From TrEMBL:
PROSITE patterns: POLYPRENYL_SYNTHASE_1, POLYPRENYL_SYNTHASE_2
Protein family: Belongs to the FPP/GGPP synthase family.
Cofactor: Mg(2+)
Gene3D superfamilies, A to Z: Farnesyl Diphosphate Synthase
Domain of life: Bacteria
Signal peptide segment: none
Key words, A-Z: Magnesium, Metal-binding, Transferase
One Gene Ontology molecular-function label: transferase activity
Assigned EC number: 2.5.1.-
Name recorded for this polypeptide: Polyprenyl synthetase family protein
CDD domains: Trans_IPPS_HT
SUPFAM superfamilies (UniProt xref): Terpenoid synthases
Length: 370
């Protein structure tokens, strides 16, 4: 089976080829579109490729040792899974461009976010109108462009599959993922605004719902199932991949929520306590609100979401959340969800070598520092 490092190389090669082709199309329309092409290439040149890796491992989990064959059908599947893996990375990039815009985030991966890049372009060139408006409008269109390109990449891969049913299943899963992420993003926005009118005893469940639909499903569950579908996986195999992928995806996002409050900016590429300034109503915050005395809870509610929080206020909120035991409880939930995933993996009707690789990947995504 193709090892993960080689898979990442293949996905990077596919992305480079695809983006070069789309850049030539944009250039044929107008050289003014070069900044969009350049940003897309730069933005998609980095990242951990977790979604690509899970898609590939989902394919291997179903295909098993047969994935090493060089017959035409297997080669077509390999091409399809590399294209699908690349499509997932482009979809992820589109989601990040829009997410940074919605959250007013200035940086992503240690560099300016898309809307800030185009805002700076406007300001440097001395164009008419408001630079911020231009940056936001351009980022919306860039995100839409990347979303469309992710569809094109997926379709190019699925078109070569010899099994039309496998292609339909993979496409259906991709479509479902796209819907879930979009409404999950809306639910995240809703929680940031509507929490004040919601009963306190519902806020944790509502935050957990955001975790599932905004992140867990599209980060891990959907890539696994898309890969398994490309290999022609049956219902039992695809359900087993879901049973592993969903709890692992929840653990993945809960780790991300911790990093959004406590992560090292030099490692995460985001300012310390960024989620506090953005007002993210995460499971961590819901747990803290359950544990804090009324006065501390009111202070948390007053400060959370203030973009002008200074470093000392961020440190104070970090201490408050940690000292009430919310961090320890969230770590326990991460462990519980990871254990659920590993238990599902142990009995899954999939290739054992691929299961071992998935276990390694599970440890990597739940113990990461960025």
């Amino acid at each position: 089976m193709v090892p993960a490092p080689r898979l990442v190389d293949l996905v990077n090669e596919r992305l480079e080829e695809f983006l070069d082709d789309r850049a030539s199309i944009l250039r044929s329309i107008a050289p003014d579109l070069d900044p969009m092409s350049e940003f897309s290439k730069r933005f998609l040149s980095g990242g951990k490729r977790f979604r690509a890796q899970f898609c590939h491992r989902g394919w291997q989990a179903v295909r098993g040792p047969a994935g090493d064959r060089s017959d035409a059908a297997t080669l077509a599947e390999r091409h399809a899974v590399v294209s699908a893996s690349a499509a997932l990375e482009v979809f992820h990039a589109a989601a990040l461009v829009h997410d940074d815009l919605i959250d007013h985030s200035d940086t992503r991966r240690g560099a300016p976010s898309a809307h800030r890049v185009f805002e700076a372009q406007h300001r440097t060139a001395g164009w008419a109108g408001d630079a911020g408006d231009y940056g936001r409008a351009t980022a919306i269109l860039l995100g839409d462009l990347l979303l469309g390109w992710s569809d094109e990449l997926l379709d190019e891969g699925l078109a070569v599959l010899p099994d039309p049913a496998a292609a339909r299943t993979a496409r259906t899963e991709f479509n479902r993922m796209r819907t879930e992420v979009t409404v999950g993003q809306y639910l995240d926005i809703l929680e940031e605004r509507a929490w004040l009118a919601m009963p306190d005893d519902e806020q944790r469940a509502r935050a957990e719902r955001v975790v599932v639909y905004k992140s867990a499903k599209y980060s891990i569950e959907a890539p696994l199932v898309i890969g398994g579908a490309i290999a022609g996986g049956g219902p039992a195999q695809l359900q087993a991949l879901q049973a592993f992928g969903l709890p692992l995806g929840i653990a993945f996002q809960l780790r991300d929520d911790l990093l959004g409050v406590y992560g090292d900016p030099d490692v995460t590429g985001k300012p310390a306590g960024d989620d506090l300034r953005e007002g993210k109503r995460t499971v961590l915050i819901a747990i803290a609100r359950e544990r804090l005395a009324s006065g501390q809870r009111r202070l948390l509610d007053e400060l959370l979401g203030d973009p002008a929080l200074d470093a000392e206020q961020v440190r104070m909120l970090q201490r408050t959340i940690r000292e009430c035991g919310a961090v320890d409880e969230l770590e326990r939930v991460i462990d519980e969800q990871t254990d659920r995933a590993m238990a599902a993996l142990s009995s899954a009707p999939i290739d054992r070598d691929a299961a071992g690789a998935l276990a390694d990947l599970a440890r990597a995504v739940t113990r990461r520092a960025s």
